[in-house]
Each structure stands twice: as C-alpha cells, then as structure tokens.
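Reopening this ticket.

The earlier resolution said the output was attached, but the attachment link was broken on my side. Pasting everything inline this time so it's all in one place.
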Amino acid sequence: MAIDFRSGKSRLGNPTGGLSGPAIKPITLKLVWETKKAVKTPIIGLGGVETVEDVLDYLAVGASAVQVGTAALLTRGPVSSLSPPLRPY
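Inline output:
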C-alpha cells in the first residue's frame, strides 16, 4: 500500500496495491504445500518464479506445473532459458 498523504489517494492505482515477485513466494509455496495435502487434483504453483531453483521449489512442495511470471517481467521476453535445466525433473 502506498498513500499520497496530500490527497489521501493511493499511489498504486487501487486502494491496497498488490503483492508480487519474490515477496509472495514463501506464502504461495506454503499454500501449494497445504493444498497438495488437501486435494487430489493438479496444482499450479505461482508467485516469485525467477529461476530454475524457484520452479523446483514449487515442484518439491507438490505443484504439478509452475507459472513463470516474475522472470518474464524481469527479462521482458521469453523465459525459455528455464526449460533445459528442468528436463531431468
């Protein structure tokens, strides 16, 4: 959240902003882990994925697939470089 103290309005375009990138990864890892214990359906892990290690973290806690958003935003392009190191997994 970020407020302009002069106007009292949000500096982010909506009242509370959002949480994204590496800051959200510990939270979403826990949610994937808890969800995996509770359901038998495939789970997509997402949040703060920048590296191959991030992808493997999500797979380790039970994700069936991983959405890559942070890396795409940081590189402003395709994240195909994450794919080859993941082939053994």
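Reporter confirms the inline version is readable. The beta strands are 3-4, 9-10, 44-45, 65-66. Residues 19-86 form a domain with the Rossmann fold fold (CATH 3.40.50.12600).
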